Amino acid sequence: MSDSTESLEKLIENNFDKLNKLEIWIAAQKHIPKNIRKLYFIIKSIWITFHNFLARIVLIQYIKFCDYDLEETKKLIDGNVKFRIKNKYLFTNRDIDSEDFRKLITSIHFARFPKLSKEGYAIESARVVNQNASNFNMKDALKLAIISHDTHALIGSNNKGIIQIYDASEFTFKHFIKVVSNIQAAIHYTQYGSGLTYVQPKQVHFLSCSTFISKIISMLKPFFSKEIMESIHCHSSSFETLHKFIDKECLPIEFGGNNGTLEEHMKNTLWNLQNNRDYINNDENFFLLDK
Fold this sequence. Notes:
The chain is of the alpha/beta class. Helix content is 49%, strand content 10%. It has a five-stranded mixed β-sheet with strand order 1-2-3-4-5. Pfam families: CRAL_TRIO (PF00650).
C-alpha cells in the first residue's frame, strides 16, 4: 500500500464522525438521485468494500479542502453536483480507452508529474504535440483534465492545490479556431475550477505565449476568479522565468528540468487513468444518473 493511500485511510478513520454526518445530509438532498445516495455512502458498514473505500476517499477530499468545516463542505458538494448535472457533456463518456481519447493523445501530451512543488502542489502539463490540429478536440482536452483530477483524487491528495502548465510552442491558428469555436466549454471549465471542485489551481503557466494564447486568456478573463487571474503567468520560449516558480527538480527535461521526460510521465499518467477507468467511467460515482 502506498504512503498516499495509507494517509487517506488515516484521514477517513480520523474523520469518521464527519463522514457519517455528511452521509445523513446527502441522504436528505432531493437533487442527488436516490439510487446514488444509497450506493455512494454506506458509511455504517463494518466491512469496507473497495468501492466504498473509493467513495470515502472522494468525500474526504471535499472535507479536507474545506478545512474540515462541514457546512462549507456541504456547500462545495452541492455546487459541484449541480454543476456536473447541468454540464454533463464535460463529465460523461469518460472512457479513456475510447477512440476519441486515443485520437486526442496523438494531438496533445498530458501528464501529471511525480514530484510535488516546494509548496506541496501537484504539477500537471498539457503540451500540443505538433502543428497538425486534425485530432485536437477542445472539449475532450478539458474532459481529460477533469478525468485526471478525479483519478488522482483517488490515489493521492490534490488538496494543497495544483500547478498547471500549458506548452503552446506548437499551437497554431487552426488550434486557436478550435478553441474559440468551443469557448463556452472553456468558460464552463474555468467556472468549475473557480470554486466548484476540490482541485484548486494555484499557478497557471503558459509557455511560448503567443498572440493566440493572449486572446484566449482575454476571452476567459471575465470568468476567472481573482485568485486564478493573479496566478496566470505567460512565458517566452525560455524556461528561466518558469524556474522562478517551479524548481528544476520537479520538471521534466523538456521544460529545462531534470526529473525524467514528458513521455515517461505521460505513460505513468495514462496508466493511472486506465487503472481507475471503471470507477471514473461509472456515472453513478459522480452524481450523474437521472432520477
